[in-house]
Specification:
This protein is mostly helical. The protein has helices spanning about 5-35, 35-55, 65-85, 90-105, 110, 115-119. Helices cover about 80% and strands about 0% of the residues. The protein starts with 5 loop residues before the first helix and ends with a helix. Keywords: Membrane, Transmembrane, Transmembrane helix.
Length: about 120
């Protein structure tokens, strides 16, 4: 695959971050619909904790297996909860966006950008 220009790569990484925020919001909305405001806040905090622990680039327990498995489980849970709470269109759009943008984030010239800045 050809290298992605850095400006495009950083845009993709910004959209990956936006996706993470949207997943937290989706979990919040879904849990709020089922269990009220407290459940919504709790679900959002659980997603943030899971992501920070297993899925983020600096996750203490992230790895070749834990990181992608956590990402898939969080995306499926957030989108499934959103669909179950009556937001089927938003769930489908978020699922499609999550799959596409995270696949683009795996392109080698995109995924190595943060490491190049750290040097």
């Amino acid at each position: 695959m050809p290298d992605v220009p850095p400006a495009v790569g950083w845009t993709i990484l910004a959209l990956v971050f936006l996706d993470e925020i949207l997943l937290v919001v989706a979990a919040w909305v879904a849990a709020d619909a089922w269990g009220g405001p407290f459940a919504g806040v709790a679900a959002a905090l659980v997603v943030v904790a899971l992501w920070a622990t297993f899925a983020s680039p600096r996750a203490p327990y992230g790895g070749r297996v834990a990181r992608p498995v956590t990402k898939v489980l969080v995306v499926l849970a957030a989108c499934g909860g959103l669909a179950a709470s009556g937001h089927e269109g938003a769930a489908a759009a978020l699922l499609a966006f999550s799959v596409v943008i995270n696949a683009l984030g795996l392109v080698p010239s995109v995924s190595r950008l943060p490491g190049e800045v750290a040097r």
